[in-house]
Design brief:
- By secondary structure, the chain is an alpha+beta fold.
- The chain has one domain (2-90).
- It has helices at residues 7-18, 48-56, 79-88, and strands at 2-3, 23-29, 39-44, 74-77.
- It has a 4-stranded antiparallel β-sheet.
- The two termini are 17 Å apart.
Length: 96
């Protein structure tokens, strides 16, 4: 279940993806499959090769990309990997 996200943040994330940028969006999220995780960061790009190359830097496999028909395909980052990636990207404001 996703919550704590603003429409303007989603729109900005989509705009960046549409421009071919690597875009980050963090929101609160609860799922019994991932106990202890309270947030998820979605890292998207409309250029799937660019997204896969970005993910390789962090040990993410292209098979882990959530492919979406609407063009907003993305990786989901959770837990410690989420924290590590955001720190390495210098996106401390996304760590909650």
């Amino acid at each position: 279940m996703a919550f704590g996200i603003k429409k303007r943040d989603v729109k900005e994330w989509k705009r960046k993806i549409d421009r071919g940028e690597i875009a980050f969006l963090t929101h609160y999220w609860l799922d019994d499959r991932f106990p202890g995780c309270k947030t998820v960061t979605k890292v998207g790009c409309n250029d799937l090769e660019k997204l896969a190359a970005w993910g390789r830097k962090y040990g993410l496999m292209k098979e882990w990309i959530h492919h979406r028909k609407d063009g907003y395909s993305h990786f989901d980052l959770l837990g410690e990997r989420q924290r590590e990636v955001l720190q390495q990207e210098g996106l401390l404001e996304y760590i909650w």
